[in-house]
Amino acid sequence: MKSKDVISKCFNESFFHVVGVLCSIGMLSLGQSSVVAQQAPATTAPATQEVPKISNAQLDSLVAPIALYSDELLAQTLAASTYPLEIIQLQQWMERNKNLKDKALADAVTKQPWDPSVQAMAAFPEVVQRLAGNIQWTTDLGNAFLAQQSDVMDAVQRMRAKAQGKGTLKTSTQQKVETKTEGGKQVIVVEQADPQVVYVPSYDPVVVYGEPAYPYYPYEYPGYYPGMGLAWGAGLALGAAWGGGWGWGCGWGNGDVNINHNNNYVNHYNRANNIRGEGGQWQHNPSHRGNAPYGDRGTADRFGGRGPGGAGAPDALVASVVSAALENLAVSAVLGNPVASAE
User: Fold this and answer.
1) Contact 147, 302 (CB under 8 A)
2) Cα–Cα distance measured from residue 32 to residue 297, given in angstroms and rounded to the nearest whole number
3) Which of 118, 180, 283, 322 could form a disulfide with 114 if both were Cys (CB 3.0 to 4.6 A apart)?
4) The pLDDT of residue 7
5) Do the beta carbons of residue 264 and residue 106 sit within 8 Å?
6) Are 161 and 248 in contact (CB under 8 A)?
Protein backbone atom coordinates (compact mmCIF):
# COMPACT_ATOMS: atom_id res chain seq x y z
CA MET A 1 0.00 0.00 0.00
CA LYS A 2 1.31 3.46 -0.84
CA SER A 3 2.38 5.64 2.13
CA LYS A 4 -0.30 8.25 1.45
CA ASP A 5 -2.96 5.50 1.45
CA VAL A 6 -1.69 4.22 4.81
CA ILE A 7 -1.85 7.70 6.32
CA SER A 8 -5.35 8.26 4.95
CA LYS A 9 -6.54 4.90 6.22
CA CYS A 10 -5.13 5.47 9.70
CA PHE A 11 -6.61 8.95 10.01
CA ASN A 12 -10.00 7.68 8.86
CA GLU A 13 -9.92 4.82 11.36
CA SER A 14 -8.85 7.17 14.14
CA PHE A 15 -11.34 9.95 13.44
CA PHE A 16 -13.89 8.69 15.91
CA HIS A 17 -11.16 8.25 18.53
CA VAL A 18 -10.43 11.97 18.35
CA VAL A 19 -14.14 12.72 18.51
CA GLY A 20 -14.36 10.53 21.60
CA VAL A 21 -11.57 12.50 23.27
CA LEU A 22 -13.29 15.78 22.50
CA CYS A 23 -16.67 14.53 23.75
CA SER A 24 -15.20 13.24 26.99
CA ILE A 25 -13.73 16.66 27.79
CA GLY A 26 -16.74 18.60 26.56
CA MET A 27 -17.97 19.36 30.05
CA LEU A 28 -14.44 20.14 31.21
CA SER A 29 -14.02 22.71 28.43
CA LEU A 30 -16.76 24.81 29.94
CA GLY A 31 -13.95 26.03 32.18
CA GLN A 32 -16.02 26.18 35.33
CA SER A 33 -17.14 23.77 38.03
CA SER A 34 -20.92 23.55 38.12
CA VAL A 35 -21.05 23.13 41.88
CA VAL A 36 -18.81 26.10 42.55
CA ALA A 37 -20.61 28.09 39.87
CA GLN A 38 -23.80 27.93 41.91
CA GLN A 39 -21.98 29.53 44.80
CA ALA A 40 -19.89 32.26 43.18
CA PRO A 41 -20.38 34.74 40.29
CA ALA A 42 -18.47 34.18 37.07
CA THR A 43 -16.77 37.56 37.22
CA THR A 44 -13.19 37.67 38.45
CA ALA A 45 -13.03 38.71 42.10
CA PRO A 46 -10.11 40.45 43.80
CA ALA A 47 -7.52 38.03 45.18
CA THR A 48 -8.28 39.18 48.71
CA GLN A 49 -12.00 38.41 48.46
CA GLU A 50 -13.03 35.22 50.25
CA VAL A 51 -14.55 32.62 47.94
CA PRO A 52 -18.00 31.45 49.11
CA LYS A 53 -17.83 27.89 50.40
CA ILE A 54 -19.73 24.95 48.95
CA SER A 55 -22.47 24.01 51.40
CA ASN A 56 -22.42 20.79 53.41
CA ALA A 57 -25.52 19.56 51.60
CA GLN A 58 -23.84 20.03 48.22
CA LEU A 59 -20.66 18.34 49.41
CA ASP A 60 -22.72 15.40 50.68
CA SER A 61 -24.22 15.00 47.21
CA LEU A 62 -20.82 15.31 45.58
CA VAL A 63 -19.10 12.58 47.64
CA ALA A 64 -22.09 10.22 47.66
CA PRO A 65 -20.81 7.97 44.81
CA ILE A 66 -17.48 7.20 46.56
CA ALA A 67 -18.14 7.65 50.29
CA LEU A 68 -18.52 3.88 50.73
CA TYR A 69 -15.20 3.07 49.03
CA SER A 70 -12.55 1.58 51.31
CA ASP A 71 -10.37 4.25 52.91
CA GLU A 72 -7.36 3.40 50.73
CA LEU A 73 -9.30 3.54 47.48
CA LEU A 74 -11.19 6.65 48.62
CA ALA A 75 -7.96 8.54 49.39
CA GLN A 76 -6.41 7.56 46.07
CA THR A 77 -9.56 8.53 44.14
CA LEU A 78 -9.78 11.94 45.81
CA ALA A 79 -6.14 12.72 44.96
CA ALA A 80 -6.54 11.54 41.36
CA SER A 81 -9.73 13.60 40.87
CA THR A 82 -7.67 16.80 41.09
CA TYR A 83 -6.09 15.89 37.72
CA PRO A 84 -9.15 15.49 35.43
CA LEU A 85 -7.21 15.86 32.19
CA GLU A 86 -4.80 13.10 33.17
CA ILE A 87 -7.74 10.87 34.15
CA ILE A 88 -9.06 11.23 30.60
CA GLN A 89 -5.61 10.51 29.19
CA LEU A 90 -5.33 7.40 31.37
CA GLN A 91 -8.73 6.13 30.24
CA GLN A 92 -7.82 6.63 26.57
CA TRP A 93 -4.44 4.98 27.10
CA MET A 94 -6.04 1.95 28.77
CA GLU A 95 -8.49 1.62 25.89
CA ARG A 96 -5.55 1.47 23.48
CA ASN A 97 -3.68 -1.06 25.61
CA LYS A 98 -6.30 -3.59 26.65
CA ASN A 99 -3.80 -6.39 26.01
CA LEU A 100 -1.69 -5.30 29.00
CA LYS A 101 -2.37 -7.16 32.24
CA ASP A 102 -0.89 -7.43 35.72
CA LYS A 103 2.85 -6.67 35.82
CA ALA A 104 3.00 -5.64 32.16
CA LEU A 105 0.29 -3.04 32.82
CA ALA A 106 1.86 -1.92 36.10
CA ASP A 107 5.26 -1.44 34.46
CA ALA A 108 3.90 0.29 31.35
CA VAL A 109 1.82 2.89 33.17
CA THR A 110 4.84 4.07 35.21
CA LYS A 111 6.36 5.21 31.90
CA GLN A 112 3.50 7.65 31.35
CA PRO A 113 4.04 11.27 32.50
CA TRP A 114 1.13 11.35 34.95
CA ASP A 115 0.84 12.02 38.65
CA PRO A 116 1.39 8.84 40.74
CA SER A 117 -2.19 9.00 42.02
CA VAL A 118 -3.39 8.78 38.39
CA GLN A 119 -0.89 6.09 37.38
CA ALA A 120 -1.99 3.93 40.32
CA MET A 121 -5.63 4.05 39.15
CA ALA A 122 -4.68 1.70 36.29
CA ALA A 123 -5.14 -1.12 38.80
CA PHE A 124 -8.84 -0.20 38.98
CA PRO A 125 -10.21 0.00 35.41
CA GLU A 126 -13.79 0.14 36.67
CA VAL A 127 -13.04 3.21 38.79
CA VAL A 128 -11.19 4.86 35.90
CA GLN A 129 -14.24 4.26 33.73
CA ARG A 130 -16.47 5.91 36.32
CA LEU A 131 -14.17 8.92 36.73
CA ALA A 132 -13.72 9.48 32.99
CA GLY A 133 -17.34 8.73 32.15
CA ASN A 134 -18.60 11.29 34.67
CA ILE A 135 -15.89 13.86 34.03
CA GLN A 136 -17.85 16.91 35.18
CA TRP A 137 -18.55 15.23 38.51
CA THR A 138 -14.88 14.20 38.75
CA THR A 139 -13.78 17.77 38.05
CA ASP A 140 -16.17 19.20 40.63
CA LEU A 141 -15.07 16.63 43.20
CA GLY A 142 -11.41 17.46 42.65
CA ASN A 143 -12.06 21.19 42.78
CA ALA A 144 -14.02 20.85 46.01
CA PHE A 145 -11.28 18.70 47.52
CA LEU A 146 -8.63 21.29 46.68
CA ALA A 147 -10.69 24.20 48.02
CA GLN A 148 -12.25 22.54 51.10
CA GLN A 149 -10.29 19.40 51.84
CA SER A 150 -11.36 18.86 55.47
CA ASP A 151 -14.98 19.69 54.59
CA VAL A 152 -14.97 17.00 51.90
CA MET A 153 -13.60 14.46 54.39
CA ASP A 154 -16.32 15.46 56.86
CA ALA A 155 -18.93 14.98 54.13
CA VAL A 156 -17.69 11.42 53.58
CA GLN A 157 -18.17 10.74 57.28
CA ARG A 158 -21.70 12.17 57.24
CA MET A 159 -22.67 9.96 54.33
CA ARG A 160 -21.14 6.88 55.93
CA ALA A 161 -23.11 7.59 59.09
CA LYS A 162 -26.32 7.84 57.05
CA ALA A 163 -25.61 4.51 55.34
CA GLN A 164 -24.71 2.87 58.64
CA GLY A 165 -27.93 4.17 60.15
CA LYS A 166 -29.93 2.59 57.32
CA GLY A 167 -28.08 -0.68 57.71
CA THR A 168 -26.50 -0.48 54.26
CA LEU A 169 -22.91 -0.02 55.50
CA LYS A 170 -21.67 -2.89 57.63
CA THR A 171 -18.95 -5.50 57.86
CA SER A 172 -19.20 -8.20 55.20
CA THR A 173 -17.06 -10.67 53.30
CA GLN A 174 -15.86 -7.75 51.16
CA GLN A 175 -15.14 -5.11 53.80
CA LYS A 176 -14.57 -4.37 57.46
CA VAL A 177 -16.42 -1.40 58.98
CA GLU A 178 -15.32 0.00 62.34
CA THR A 179 -15.90 3.11 64.42
CA LYS A 180 -12.65 4.55 65.76
CA THR A 181 -11.43 7.69 67.48
CA GLU A 182 -8.96 9.79 65.52
CA GLY A 183 -7.92 13.32 66.37
CA GLY A 184 -10.41 13.44 69.23
CA LYS A 185 -13.46 12.57 67.11
CA GLN A 186 -15.28 9.39 66.19
CA VAL A 187 -15.00 8.31 62.58
CA ILE A 188 -16.24 5.38 60.52
CA VAL A 189 -13.34 3.51 58.92
CA VAL A 190 -13.86 1.16 55.97
CA GLU A 191 -11.16 -1.37 55.08
CA GLN A 192 -10.91 -4.43 52.83
CA ALA A 193 -11.69 -7.72 54.54
CA ASP A 194 -8.57 -8.99 52.75
CA PRO A 195 -5.93 -6.23 52.43
CA GLN A 196 -4.85 -7.58 49.03
CA VAL A 197 -8.31 -7.87 47.48
CA VAL A 198 -10.26 -4.72 46.61
CA TYR A 199 -13.98 -4.62 45.94
CA VAL A 200 -15.56 -1.57 44.33
CA PRO A 201 -19.13 -1.02 45.58
CA SER A 202 -21.99 -0.10 43.25
CA TYR A 203 -25.18 1.52 44.52
CA ASP A 204 -27.92 4.05 44.06
CA PRO A 205 -27.33 6.84 46.64
CA VAL A 206 -31.06 7.12 47.37
CA VAL A 207 -31.12 3.46 48.41
CA VAL A 208 -28.01 3.43 50.62
CA TYR A 209 -28.28 6.91 52.13
CA GLY A 210 -31.90 7.97 51.78
CA GLU A 211 -33.38 11.07 50.17
CA PRO A 212 -30.90 13.97 49.96
CA ALA A 213 -31.17 17.50 51.30
CA TYR A 214 -29.55 18.61 48.03
CA PRO A 215 -30.16 16.58 44.82
CA TYR A 216 -27.60 13.85 44.26
CA TYR A 217 -25.15 14.63 41.51
CA PRO A 218 -25.97 13.04 38.10
CA TYR A 219 -23.73 9.98 38.01
CA GLU A 220 -23.87 6.70 36.10
CA TYR A 221 -21.70 3.88 34.80
CA PRO A 222 -22.14 0.50 33.06
CA GLY A 223 -24.25 -1.78 35.20
CA TYR A 224 -25.79 1.02 37.24
CA TYR A 225 -29.55 1.37 37.40
CA PRO A 226 -31.79 3.55 39.60
CA GLY A 227 -32.86 1.73 42.72
CA MET A 228 -29.92 -0.67 42.95
CA GLY A 229 -28.81 -1.52 46.46
CA LEU A 230 -25.23 -2.08 47.55
CA ALA A 231 -23.65 -4.53 45.08
CA TRP A 232 -20.16 -5.91 44.60
CA GLY A 233 -18.37 -6.99 41.46
CA ALA A 234 -15.45 -9.38 41.30
CA GLY A 235 -12.65 -8.61 43.75
CA LEU A 236 -9.45 -7.13 42.32
CA ALA A 237 -6.46 -9.08 43.61
CA LEU A 238 -3.44 -6.81 43.96
CA GLY A 239 -0.47 -9.13 44.15
CA ALA A 240 3.26 -8.68 43.63
CA ALA A 241 2.66 -7.26 40.13
CA TRP A 242 1.50 -3.98 41.68
CA GLY A 243 4.43 -3.65 44.05
CA GLY A 244 2.44 -3.78 47.28
CA GLY A 245 1.35 -0.81 49.39
CA TRP A 246 -1.19 0.11 46.74
CA GLY A 247 -3.48 2.56 48.54
CA TRP A 248 -3.06 5.84 50.33
CA GLY A 249 -4.51 6.78 53.71
CA CYS A 250 -7.30 8.95 55.11
CA GLY A 251 -6.08 11.22 57.88
CA TRP A 252 -9.51 11.51 59.47
CA GLY A 253 -8.15 13.31 62.52
CA ASN A 254 -6.69 16.08 60.37
CA GLY A 255 -9.21 16.00 57.53
CA ASP A 256 -6.64 15.15 54.88
CA VAL A 257 -5.11 12.39 52.74
CA ASN A 258 -1.78 10.83 53.60
CA ILE A 259 0.77 9.70 51.02
CA ASN A 260 1.73 6.03 51.14
CA HIS A 261 5.46 5.92 50.39
CA ASN A 262 5.25 2.15 50.02
CA ASN A 263 3.08 2.73 46.96
CA ASN A 264 4.93 1.55 43.85
CA TYR A 265 3.98 4.65 41.86
CA VAL A 266 4.92 7.10 44.58
CA ASN A 267 8.31 5.42 44.88
CA HIS A 268 8.82 5.51 41.12
CA TYR A 269 7.82 9.18 40.97
CA ASN A 270 10.10 10.09 43.87
CA ARG A 271 13.06 8.31 42.30
CA ALA A 272 12.44 9.95 38.93
CA ASN A 273 12.22 13.39 40.51
CA ASN A 274 14.86 12.86 43.23
CA ILE A 275 12.31 13.41 46.01
CA ARG A 276 12.97 12.10 49.52
CA GLY A 277 10.51 11.81 52.35
CA GLU A 278 8.94 9.56 54.94
CA GLY A 279 5.25 10.06 54.33
CA GLY A 280 3.00 12.87 55.40
CA GLN A 281 0.15 14.91 54.05
CA TRP A 282 -0.65 14.65 50.36
CA GLN A 283 -0.03 17.80 48.32
CA HIS A 284 -1.54 18.66 44.95
CA ASN A 285 1.04 19.01 42.17
CA PRO A 286 -0.12 21.76 39.76
CA SER A 287 2.37 20.64 37.10
CA HIS A 288 0.00 17.72 36.41
CA ARG A 289 -3.11 19.89 36.15
CA GLY A 290 -2.48 20.83 32.52
CA ASN A 291 -4.80 23.55 31.24
CA ALA A 292 -7.81 22.38 33.23
CA PRO A 293 -9.07 25.47 35.11
CA TYR A 294 -9.45 25.39 38.88
CA GLY A 295 -12.86 25.75 40.48
CA ASP A 296 -12.33 29.22 41.97
CA ARG A 297 -9.94 32.13 41.72
CA GLY A 298 -8.49 31.59 45.20
CA THR A 299 -7.48 27.99 44.48
CA ALA A 300 -6.11 28.99 41.08
CA ASP A 301 -3.96 31.69 42.70
CA ARG A 302 -2.73 29.23 45.33
CA PHE A 303 -1.50 26.80 42.68
CA GLY A 304 -0.59 29.30 39.97
CA GLY A 305 -3.18 28.02 37.51
CA ARG A 306 -6.25 29.17 35.60
CA GLY A 307 -9.40 30.23 37.39
CA PRO A 308 -12.95 29.42 36.30
CA GLY A 309 -13.98 31.15 33.11
CA GLY A 310 -10.55 32.73 32.76
CA ALA A 311 -9.71 34.25 29.40
CA GLY A 312 -8.82 31.51 27.01
CA ALA A 313 -9.20 28.70 29.56
CA PRO A 314 -11.67 26.55 27.59
CA ASP A 315 -9.87 27.09 24.30
CA ALA A 316 -6.51 26.28 25.86
CA LEU A 317 -7.80 23.05 27.38
CA VAL A 318 -9.41 21.85 24.15
CA ALA A 319 -6.38 22.89 22.11
CA SER A 320 -4.00 20.96 24.35
CA VAL A 321 -6.01 17.73 24.05
CA VAL A 322 -6.62 18.12 20.30
CA SER A 323 -2.93 18.81 19.73
CA ALA A 324 -1.91 15.70 21.70
CA ALA A 325 -4.51 13.54 19.94
CA LEU A 326 -3.54 14.72 16.45
CA GLU A 327 0.15 14.28 17.19
CA ASN A 328 -0.54 10.72 18.32
CA LEU A 329 -2.53 10.01 15.16
CA ALA A 330 0.12 11.52 12.92
CA VAL A 331 2.82 9.32 14.42
CA SER A 332 0.59 6.26 14.14
CA ALA A 333 -0.19 7.05 10.51
CA VAL A 334 3.46 7.38 9.55
CA LEU A 335 4.19 4.04 11.21
CA GLY A 336 1.17 2.44 9.59
CA ASN A 337 -0.19 1.56 13.04
CA PRO A 338 -3.44 3.31 14.02
CA VAL A 339 -3.24 2.15 17.63
CA ALA A 340 -0.61 3.70 19.88
CA SER A 341 1.55 1.29 21.86
CA ALA A 342 2.10 1.24 25.61
CA GLU A 343 5.52 2.77 25.14
Assistant:
1) no
2) 11
3) 118
4) 41
5) yes
6) no
User: Nearest CA to 251 among 75, 106, 80?
Assistant: 75
Question: How many Cβ atoms sit within 10 Å of the Cβ of residue 240?
Answer: 10
Name which of 298, 326, 315, 316 is nearest 54 in CA terms.
298
Q: What is the per-residue pLDDT across 266-317, written as a single tens digit (0 to 9) for each?
A: 555 454 444 444 457 788 999 999 889 999 999 999 998 887 765 434 444 4
Phi, psi dihedral angles at 106 (to 5 degrees): -60, -40
Angle of helix 56-63 relative to helix 135-147, nearest 10 degrees, comes to 130
CA 174 from chain centre, in angstroms, equals 22
Beta bridge pairs of residue 175: 192
Given a contact cutoff of 8 angstroms between Cβ atoms, the answer to whether 64 and 98 are in contact is: no
Amino acid at 239: G
Alpha-helical (H) ranges within 273-342 are 297-303, 313-335
- pTM, two decimals, is 0.76
Length reported for the chain: 343
Cβ neighbourhood burial of 47 (10 Å; 0-12, 13-18, 19+): exposed
Q: Distances from the Cα of 136 to the Cαs of 53, 88, 143, 178, 330, in angstroms?
A: 19, 11, 10, 32, 29
Chain centroid, CA 322 distance in Å: 21
Residue 292 burial (C-beta neighbours within 10 Å; 0-12, 13-18, 19+): buried
> Do 190 and 160 meet the contact criterion of CB atoms below 8 Å apart?
yes
Q: What is the pLDDT of residues 19-65, one digit of tens each?
A: 454 444 454 444 444 444 444 444 444 444 567 899 999 999 999 99
Contact 306, 300 (CB under 8 A): yes
Q: Are 61 and 212 in contact (CB under 8 A)?
A: yes
> In this structure, what DSSP letter does residue 12 have?
H
User: Nearest CA to 176 among 157, 195, 200?
Assistant: 195
pLDDT in tens, 281-294: 788 999 999 889 99
Cα distances from 284 to residues 176, 201, 236, 321, in angstroms, run 29, 26, 27, 21
Q: What is the rounded CA–CA span in Å between residue 303 and residue 163?
A: 35
